[in-house]
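Notes continue from the previous slide.

Worked example: a multi-chain complex. Inputs as given:
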Amino acid sequence: MDENLEAELRALSMHLETPEAPDLTSAVRERLATSPPRHPRRTRALRSRPSVPVRWRRWVYALVAALILTAATPQGRAFAEHLLKFAGVEFSSTPGPAPVASPSLPGEVRASLERARREVGFPILVPSALGQPDEVTVSDQGRVVTLRFGGIRLDEFDGRIEEMFFGKFLAGQPERFKKAKVGSIPAIWILGGHDVWYIGRDGGDYTASARTAGNTLIWQAGASAMRLEGVSTLEEALRIARSAS
Amino acid sequence: MQDEDDDVIARAKAGDLDACEALVARFTAPAHRLAVLLGAGADADDVVQEAFVKALRNLDGFRLGSPFRPWLLRIVANETKNTVRSRGRRAGLVLKAAALTASEAATDDPEGETMAAMRRSTLLAEVNRLPDRERQVLICRFFLDLNEAETAQVLACPRGSVKSRTSRGLARLRANLGEEVRHG
């Protein structure tokens, strides 16, 4: 099976659209001849990785640009691609699994706040603006905790690790996204309904979790990635977010 | 071939511009293809030019006798990454399928060819959807025909990661393609 797929990929390489290579000989020669190397050991710098905050900021900036780009090109929507990762959330411009009737996260079980605090490996924040949660659930062996306050839902998970937890399907509608700040922390506000689903430990979509979410604010509070859903205005969402401790 | 390269590289190292030019002429095509496939898009020409200038200025860092192509391609891959990063968006639409060529469209079996083209475009869409690190490994292994060691060098990651990302990427592709068949 794998061998077939490998052969198919190799065959596909013949059909890829790649523009013709330019003739760079004289341009490169000219540059080599005119300016001597200013940084003889420059290649070492190529190995350095950006620090996490820089990388994170970059994703925030990338969001709007990527969405405008996708919206501008019809083939941008036609082709499947993932756009962006931010605070444990991966944005996708192609539809994920279809929403199901009773969505749940993997192994989602109810717990008291105290028990949830013992079971998860990151601090659970509760927004004082919302009071005590009506319901607390822990999912995927302590990877995610969800607090419900009436129609408002707050998912918290360890946002430091590289794997992504939630996929969101976002067609190219830049007007639906807004950069925001929770205190000094970058956040993203998504206005209106969009599909959301959980990405499992193996990186695959967890189809039983797929549902349509409403307005959502995403930010990172220390170690935790937070997604607050079901608040009608950005101002109110930010007020709630700032009260989380 | 290797000896011949070494001779040219040795001369380029010594500052011989003709030798530098010969290396550019010889390796532009694979360098350009790599830059395009990794998402350089319209910046591919600039990326490759920049990579050559950097590589040729830093030939001191190249060990004579080792393969030049993956050493150069690593610089191209880095330069591509930096460019994609600096323009502030991810490498979207990395891979596009070419339109049917006239000879393909004129086959005895136009329907079969159309089906094949659809299958290619589905497969390509799934490759585009893969996480970056898996997609890059598959691009190197299957679209650029680099072996595991070369892929590890070009992408600056351990060989074990090339192995695991290849199998994860293939598994994910297979699963996603399978799902599409079921849904269809």
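Summary box: Chain B touches chain A through 63 residues (CB under 8 Å). The mean pLDDT of chain B is 82.
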